[in-house]
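Re: the 253-residue chain
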Amino acid sequence: MNHLDHQYTLFIADLHLSAQRPDITAAFLRFLREQTTNADALYILGDLFEVWIGDDNPEPLLDEVATALSQLAQRGVPIYFCHGNRDFLLKQQYAKRAGMTLLAANTVVNLYGTPTLVMHGDSLCTLDVQYQKFRRWWDQPWWQWLILHSPLWYRQHLARKARRKSHATKMAKTATIMDVTPEEVPVVLQRFQVNHLIHGHTHRPAVHQHPLPNGDVGHRYVLGDWYEQCSVLTVSAKQWQLQFSSLANEQAE
């Protein structure tokens, strides 16, 4: 990725980092070293990790990622993190270690004069009623407190159980149910009084346009996952560009 514009901001999501996919971790660490140094900011819009069971998890991968992120922050690049449905239990302790600023679930940022709503994106999948019920449950502070104060081994057990259930449930759902509900987008854009939206979650990188009731056109940028390739949105004053490159560091479009 060649950045001709001196001012640009980077957006990524859905890396699902885990010890089982060292190739994704290697690609992410390379991205931090090579692509972010001159950025105005890096936004991570959720599901950076495959699963998060607490800031006290001693897994070496978490230290490796925190060190790389904090080094970027120390070089003067702000890092903003929005929780995903896999790492919603990530709290201030780890964010501080990684040099990240935690964002609210829905945050409006000014991108070179363009007010833009950023989020993980799962709240837009309103047709998935079962998931939305679960989402409202785990979003409760008391529930999160209860989970995080249980023994680490128990949280690891719950994570394994949740992953098996998630996989089985996903196999039974249609693509439409798991995707963004198009009718929800204009509602959300109007609520936050913006015409631009950036999110991840669906693993379907694309740029969508949504007619708005006031006659304007809403622009929705969907970030891709990193299962098969790196996916980055680069925003500058001149252009918004979804870019892709292979995990092996070979440029591709």
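Residues 9-252 form a domain with the Purple Acid Phosphatase; chain A, domain 2 fold (CATH 3.60.21.10).
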